[in-house]
Amino acid sequence: MVFRTGLKSPSYKPRPPLLPQLSTVNYQLFMDLKSLIRDIPDFPQPGIMFRDITTLLSNPEGLSYTIDSLAEKCSEMSADYILGMESRGFIFGAPLAYKMGMGFVPVRKPGKLPSAVHFAEYELEYGVDRLEIHQDAMSPGSRVLVVDDLIATGGTAAATAKLLELAGCELAGFAFIIELQGLGGRQKLPQVPIITLVEY
Fold first, then answer.
1. What digits encode the pLDDT tens for the residues 21-60?
2. How far apart are CA 52 and CA 65, in angstroms?
């Protein structure tokens, strides 16, 4: 049997892409993302107003607009990698890396990564937590954009910046969907560009 490559049958039709192209949105010039984020009072405890992004994620136009907006705003940071914080940073970081033609690196909680890691600890209200990345995830000297869904007190974002120092990488900037301005998280971060799409 002889196989020929590079030839197409006369009836050949290209299969449509499995994922929609994340091209620049053209359905409207501006979208009110805040209207797609659901407010849930008293969660996870009384007195807390939880900003629920699942309603944004389930809206195709809203999700595309979010990724496209981040890509546009972060285009001048000249990053080599996008680093997403567990776990909602994965949701936005991976498609943003695809959109911008970069690699994606996950930041994980302890015990989730199988190879040698760098780690940084940060304080919680009642204790200490820790974040980790693989030691070989990025080449030293790489410029890295850190992405997460929300910045509140800034503890996890600041710990992630320390991870990049340990890895010998340069922090290009931060990108968040939501900023809770009253909690002052921005003031705890290094002096680099910080992108947010929605502020409360």
1. 434 444 446 799 999 999 999 999 999 999 999 999 999 9
2. 17
Active-site residue among 88, 130, 143, 186?
88
DSSP state of 45: S
126 burial class (0-12, 13-18, 19+ CB within 10 angstroms)?
exposed
For 128-183, how does the pLDDT look when each residue is reduced to its tens digit (9 = 90+)? 899 999 999 999 999 999 999 999 999 999 999 999 999 999 999 999 999 999 99
Phi-psi region at 96: left, alpha or beta (left = phi > 0; alpha = psi -120 to 50): alpha
Q: Which of 199, 164, 34, 198 is nearest to 189 (CA)?
A: 164
Q: Is 121 part of the annotated catalytic residue set?
A: no
Rg of the chain in Å (alpha carbons) = 20
125 is catalytic: yes
| Region for 141 from its dihedrals, namely left if φ exceeds 0, alpha if ψ lies in -120 to 50, beta otherwise | left
Hunting for tokens 């949701």 — which residue is that?
Answer: 91
